Amino acid sequence: MEYRLTTPCTAQELAPLKAGDTVLLSGVVYTARDQAHKRMMEALDKGETLPFDLEGSAIYYVGPTPERPGEVIGSAGPTTSGRMDAMSPRLLDLGNKIMIGKGKRDAAVKAAVVRNGAVYLAALGGAGALMAKSVQTLEVIAWPDLGCEAVRRLTVQDMPLTVVLDAHGGDLYEAGPAAYLAAL
Question: Where's the Fe-S hydro-lyase tartrate dehydratase beta-type catalytic domain (predicted)?
Answer without folding.
Answer: 5-175
